[in-house]
Write a structure and sequence with these properties.
Helix content is about 30%, strand content about 15%. It is of the alpha+beta class. The two termini are about 15 Å apart.
Length: about 290
């Protein structure tokens, strides 16, 4: 697909900004809304892929920390899902840039993630693929994190069917809760486990966790209360995890950690969230 291609008489495709196993993401201009957007093109390779696209298209989960499609249309062999354009990269990018994050910063990011999970779980949706790459960030010169949970392509509604190819577990292995690896039905506490593993990554600076990762002892300088919250979220037994995201947020709030801006790394380096997209290329088209 070339720059300037118009889909559905509405979306002018400008530049590719991401790719995945069954999708590509473009920066596009939405002429109906008069704004730039992220246009996710999902390949229609079979009924499973189509059903996932339709499911993601149907989700309407308006929340400051959630990104879901606001419009869609057919695009030859693809389904186009239009979403808000988030310009600051992902938490995965931030971890790659700075490594281990300060406890106050990690607590703020985790709190925003739990707020997003509380909202979607209340709507009867389980995300199933919570990980740093799916936590998008808005740019900030002072490092203030504004987290947006994205990519609901494999989300599961309470009353919905499991959209999974026979013989495969859906999600990213190190963030999958043990009960899911044991083929039990996904539920909200699966997302809490993944959120805990995101917290573990932020506080340790380690790479992606292994399946059934043990959190171990807290890194030096990590407040015991914060580590206790993360360890509880990562408990192998779902019954020992917090009952819901709201309870986890309350426990996190009791740690009393306050993020002060401008944010700095553990080494005192300014922590900034950069605009990863830059200005849009070329004309917006007709």
């Amino acid at each position: 697909m070339s720059t300037g291609w118009v889909i559905g008489g509405r979306f002018t495709m400008l530049d590719r900004i991401g790719t995945g196993g069954t999708s590509r993401v473009w920066r596009a201009f939405d002429h109906a809304e008069g704004r730039y957007c992220a246009a996710k093109l999902v390949r229609r390779r079979g009924p499973t892929t189509v059903l996932r696209a339709v499911r993601e298209q149907a989700l309407r989960l308006a929340h400051p920390h959630v990104v879901t499609p606001y419009a869609s249309c057919a695009a030859d062999d693809d389904v186009l899902l239009a979403m808000e354009l988030v310009r600051g990269g992902s938490l995965q990018t931030l971890l790659g840039d700075y490594g281990r994050l300060p406890p106050e910063y990690a607590a703020e990011v985790l709190d925003q993630l739990l707020a997003a999970l509380s909202h979607i779980h209340a709507a009867g949706v389980v995300h199933r693929d919570v990980k740093p790459a799916n936590l998008l960030l808005e740019p900030s010169a002072v490092g203030a994190p504004l987290v947006r949970l994205a990519d609901f392509g494999i989300a599961l509604e309470d009353d919905g069917p499991r959209v999974t190819t026979t013989g495969f577990t859906v999600g990213t292995p190190g963030y999958l809760a043990p009960e899911v690896l044991d083929w039990n039905r996904p539920g909200p506490r699966q997302d809490l486990y993944a959120a805990g593993m995101v917290g573990w990554r932020m506080l340790t600076g380690a790479g992606d966790p292994e399946p059934r990762q043990r959190v171990g002892a807290p890194p030096a300088g990590t407040p015991p209360g914060l580590w206790s919250v993360v360890a509880c979220l990562c408990d192998p037994d779902p019954e020992r995890r917090p009952p819901d995201a709201a309870a986890a947020r309350r426990a996190l709030g009791m740690c009393g950690l306050v993020l002060r801006l401008p944010a700095c790394t553990l080494d005192g380096e300014p922590l900034q969230i950069f605009d990863h997209l830059g200005p849009p290329p070329g004309p917006r088209g007709a």
